[in-house]
Design brief:
Layout: H1 5-19, E1 32-36, E2 39-43, H2 47-58, E3 80-82, E4 85-89, E5 95-99, H3 118-134, H4 139-154, H5 160-185, E6 189-194, H6 198-210, E7 215-220, H7 225-229, H8 246-251, E8 262-267, H9 271-276, E9 280-285, H10 289-301, H11 312-320
Parallel strand pairs: 6-7
Antiparallel strand pairs: 1-2, 3-4, 4-5, 8-9
């Protein structure tokens, strides 16, 4: 799992092993079976059946390199580790879950004295407490999980006072998020409009309220004339992804194919068309102009193709130059 393709490779590999074993072998069909990458979870009647599931999956590996180990509860009141939590099935069928850390895993995390912003350290610790809460099924298990996080953080230089501040801040943030979620639930949708003035925004809100339209008005910063006419990085040059870009060659400047929101003019290069003014096409595009020109090039090269027949350059070639022409005939 040390490289990016590893998770995808694990999913594909395990699926190939499962499809001819646990999915089809009626002798070992468990009550429940699931997998997260290469970690398996199943509910069986005894440990022997769990071992048979592992052996069945291993036997499908042509390289004989897959080795699965079984974590099984020692008693009915014992927890079984799975991923970052421990699981126990109660008598009524409900699940008890709490945080789990492997015994061989060192008590190391982002140290309190490390050269990181204070906010990063606080958010790291807060996320640990959030994880402990999310994987714990009840108050008792949450307290157990929280003590585990306390031990980890204290071992890395955090004191009890700092930890209490983080916990208090988490409570305030949870309360704020809950109030905000309640407000959002009461609003069906958001209406985003560019900011013109406070007076204009207030009138739109009043109109929506008077008409009982369940929307929340949100204003976005509007663009100024300066944003269109100036650049904060004027020396930056546009980059083209290819060395022999036909659009850049036609426009005479490297990188011009990346320009967006333009109006352009295309002329047929045949002498008779230039003299008569036939074969001029004016267009506009919000996409990079290079992408639009590629479509024109294709239609010019294949004017009789069914998919290009109705495009402007193809129409011109079909009516004025029936023989296939070269894309160099267009400027």
């Amino acid at each position: 799992m040390g490289v990016r393709p590893a998770p995808l490779g694990a999913i594909i590999k395990m699926w190939k092993l499962e499809r001819n074993s646990v999915y089809v072998d009626q002798r070992i069909t468990p009550t429940y079976y699931g997998r997260y990458y290469d970690d398996l979870g199943a509910i069986t009647t005894n440990i022997r059946k769990a071992q048979l599931i592992c052996l069945s999956i291993e036997s499908q590996d042509p390289d004989h390199r897959i080795r699965l180990t079984v974590d099984y509860p020692e008693s009915r009141n014992s927890f079984t580790p799975f991923l970052n939590m421990e699981v126990k099935i109660n008598q009524d069928g409900s699940l008890d879950t709490r945080l789990f850390r492997k015994p061989q895993k060192k008590l190391l995390t982002l140290h309190a004295s490390s050269h990181h912003p204070l906010s990063v350290k606080e958010h790291t610790a807060a996320n640990m407490y959030d994880t402990a809460d999310n994987v714990s099924s009840n108050t008792v298990n949450k307290q157990y999980s929280e003590r585990m996080v306390d031990e980890l953080l204290i071992n890395n230089g955090y004191n009890n006072r700092v930890l209490q501040q983080i916990k208090d801040r988490r409570k305030r943030n949870r309360s704020y998020r809950k109030r905000r979620e309640n407000r959002v639930l009461n609003t069906v949708t958001s209406l985003k409009i560019p900011f013109l003035s406070d007076k204009c925004t207030a009138k739109i809100k009043e109109a929506a309220k008077s008409l009982q339209i369940p929307i929340r008005v949100v204003t976005t910063p509007g663009k100024k004339l300066r944003d269109f006419l100036t650049s904060s990085r004027p020396r930056d040059k546009k980059k083209c992804s290819t060395n022999n870009c036909r659009t850049c060659l036609a426009l005479g400047d490297k990188g011009q194919c990346t320009v967006q929101n333009v109006v352009y003019e295309v002329k047929c290069g045949y002498t008779e068309c230039l003299q008569s003014g036939v074969g001029i096409y004016n267009g506009e595009t919000y996409r990079p102009i290079g992408e639009r020109f590629i479509e024109h090039y294709r239609s010019a090269n294949n004017p009789t193709a069914k998919s290009y027949r109705d495009m402007p350059l193809a129409k011109h070639y079909n009516s004025h130059h029936p023989r296939p022409a070269s894309i160099r005939d267009w400027n």
